[in-house]
Amino acid sequence: MGENIDIFAAAWQELEESVIYYYNRPVGTLAAADNEVAALNYDQCFIRDFVSAALVFLIKGKTEIVRNFLLQTLKMQMKERQLDFLEPGRGLMPASFKVVHDQEQGEQYLLGDFGNHAIGRVTPVDSCFWWVFLLRAYVQATGEYSLAHQPEFQKGIRLIIELCLVARFDLYPTLLVPDGACMIDRRMGINGHPLEIQSLFYTTLRAAQELLIDNKENSYIIQAVAKRLPPLVEHIRHHYWLDLQRVNVIYRYKSEEYGEEALNQFNIYSDSIPYDQLSRWLPENGGYLAGNLGPSHLDCRFFSLGNLMAVMSSLTSVEQGEKIMNVIETRWDDLIGQMPMKICFPALRERDWQVLTGCDPKNRPWSYHNGGNWPVLLWMLAAAALKTGREEIAKNAIEIAAHRLPGDQWPEYYDGRNGRLVGREARKYQTWTISGFLLAQEIINNPEYLSLVCL
Ligand code: GLC
C-alpha cells in the first residue's frame, strides 16, 4: 500500500512538471519529457494527449489550466471559410501547439500545427472532438456553464458540427476521413469510416446537445444534430457489430445485390473476412465493433479506443457494451497481456503491412500503432469497465500497469504480442501515460467521476 502511494505521488509530480506556460499561466502539458531522444514535436501540447491530464487536473480542483487550454485552443480554431486548399478547413482544430518566445519583441504567441508540419501531413480530425469532450467535462466538474455559453464557445461548437455535417461526399451517417486522422496518426489502413472517429463524432454530437443554447442562431445545428444521431447509432450498432451470430450471417452473404432490399448493403465479399481466426477468437458471449466499414470493406480488427469510447458514450447498447467487456476478459492475453492495452488486434503482417502501412518500419507487426500496447488506454478501459459493472477488469489492469510503468519510466507504448517489451522508439516520461494511469485510479476510487467522461 505504502509503495502504491509513492507511485501515485511520483506520477503526480511528473505530471505537474510537464505543464507548459503561456505568459506565466498554465496552458497545457508537453507530450513527453524525454531528454534522451530528439523531441521532434513531443515538446508540444497535443489536444488529444492533454485530455487525460486535464481530467486529472479537474478532479484535483486545478481547473485554471483546463480553462486556459480550452480558451487558447478555441482561439486557434480556423474561423474563416477557406477556398485556398493550403489552409485547413473552417472549424478544424490543431493537433498540437507550442508556445513561441519572440525574444526581440519580448512577446509570446501560440503556434498550432494543423498537420501542416506533422510527419505524413496527417489531418487531426479528432482534435475538435476531444475539445468538445473536454469542454463538457469542464462544465460538469466546475458547474461553470457560463463558459460554454459564451458566444465564442457557442460559435466554436457550431463550426465543428458544421465541418462534420455540411459538405460531404457520401451518404452514410458516419464520417469520412483520410488515413491517420486520430490517435493512430500514421498510415494504418484506417481511412474511410474508422471506428475511433465515429465514436468520437457521436460523443461530440451528444455533448453538443448538452452545450448548445436553444436559440435562433443554433436552431439549425441543433436540428441537424438531432436528425443525424438516430441513423448514426443504428448504422454502427448494426453494420459494425461482430459477434458469432453476425459473423454467421456475413459468412453466408450473397453479393452483387442491387436496390433497397439488399441484405448485404455494402457488398462485402465473404472471402475478405478472416473467418477462421474470428470463429476461433470470438467467445460465445462476446462481440465488438469492427474497425471500419465501406464499399466491399469490413475491417475486422479490434480497435480499443473506438470500442471503449463507444461503451462510455452509450453508442453501443447495454448488451453490446457487456459483450465488448466479455471479449476483453476472455481474450485478456491478446488485448491486455503485460500492459493494458493493445491499441488494435491483430497486427497487420507481411503483405498487409506492406500495402496498408506503406512499409512503415515504426509500425512493423506488434509495434507502436500496429498492435502495440498503449498505457494511455488504461483510463478508458477503467471507465468502460466500471460503467458496465466490471470493476475487477479495471482493478486487474491497473495492477499490471502499476507494476511496470514507474520502473520503465512511463513509456509511451510497449511492443510484442503481449506488450512485454518497452516500445522500440517509445518516449519515456510520456505525459498521457502518467495522466492516464492517475486518471484510471481516480475513477476506480470515486466512480462518480464517471459522469465526466460517460454519457
Ligand atoms: C504519436 C501518437 C499520437 C500522439 C503523439 C503525441 O504521434 O500517435 O496519437 O498524440 O504521439 O504523444
From TrEMBL:
One of its GO terms (molecular function) is sucrose alpha-glucosidase activity. Pfam families: Glyco_hydro_100. Its EC number is 3.2.1.26. It is an enzyme of class 3 (hydrolase). It catalyses: Hydrolysis of terminal non-reducing beta-D-fructofuranoside residues in beta-D-fructofuranosides. Keywords: Carbohydrate metabolism, Glycosidase, Hydrolase. Belongs to the glycosyl hydrolase 100 family. SUPFAM superfamilies: Six-hairpin glycosidases. This is beta-fructofuranosidase. The keyword Cell inner membrane does not apply. GO terms for biological process: sucrose catabolic process. InterPro entries: 6-hairpin_glycosidase_sf, 6hp_glycosidase-like_sf, Glyco_hydro_100.
